[in-house]
Amino acid sequence: MEVNGSASNSSTLGVADTPGYLLVLKAISLCTIIVMAVLGNLLVVVSVYRYRKLRNITNCFVVSLAIADVLVSLIAMPFNASVELSGRWMFGHAMCDVWNSVDVYASTVSIIHLCCISIDRYYAIVKPLNYPLVITERLVVMMLTFVWVFPVSISFVPIFLGWYTTAEHQLFRAENPHVCKFVVNRPYAVISSSISFWIPSTIMCVMYYFVYQEAVRQAKFLYKNASAASRSQIAMNGTISPSRKGPLEGEDRAGETAQKIRHEHKAARTLGIIMGVFVLCWLPFFTWYITVSLCREACPCPDVVVVVLFWIGYLNSCLNPLIYAYFNRDFRDAFKQTLQCVFEPCCAKAAAERSSV
Prior knowledge:
Layout: H1 7-17, H2 20-50, H3 57-86, H4 92-125, H5 131-134, H6 137-149, H7 156-160, H8 167-175, H9 186-237, H10 249-295, H11 303-327, H12 329-343, H13 347-356
Helix pairs in contact: 1-3, 2-3, 2-11, 2-12, 3-4, 3-11, 4-6, 4-9, 4-10, 9-10, 10-11, 11-12
Pfam families: 7tm_1
Family: Belongs to the G-protein coupled receptor 1 family.
Subcellular location: Cell membrane
């Protein structure tokens, strides 16, 4: 989400005064973030498409989230980078509205995706018996449709119709075609930030609080059952043979359930970390956004701080694939195999030979 404030006014002077090596360093940094975000999220999409093990309901939301991050990376980031490197807006009023709309839209889509994922994890762990009855394919389609359609109401519609800003800013836009500022009025600031961040974040925190409590309860339950099974076996046999290679009878009965619970917990942990990183990346921006929008001139903020807040938020789009690769073994293995197929020309032939055997 973009609120370009006074940064665009002073950006031309700032770029002119910036040493060449710093400008090159800035260009490399911004381009690196953009390329990593695009390639990383495309890797997520391709990996889920290629590997059947990753095709589940939760990963439908993960793939859709990756597509939203690709949208941010291909449209919102390059326009912002062009302003930061050139010091001026070069694409006219219409593209300025498109840029701001996509920025607001994609950011809102991303966080509502995470909100849906938190609800999915809540039912998978806290209400596992109800999960297949509630989280059906039809409901997932409805949720994804809502995620992609609803944010239009706070992005493209109010921005293209001019409802988001003030009359003074409309006059400023007409007189300054080389400045793309996103100055919002107070009602739009409150409504858009609530829908885009504050309400979904609150829902996510509540959902993961219940998930955490249930995870702790289940961990204690599994520990007690394993201990009880061990004591029962010892009481029946008198002792446990050191040469026993198989599992205890009680452990064997509970093994499948325990494995399923651990799998759900790992998925919840990975997605919980993604949620936490998203909040950490966007909380500073939205705090600044609502504060500056409500108190106006009474809350000045240096331009460099505004730029840093934007790109910390954008950085989130390239962090999710790294989180999958580090914390989720299934994604990590899929990423490795996908990258091997990209960088090893003989991979496809070898795979065909293996499948024919």
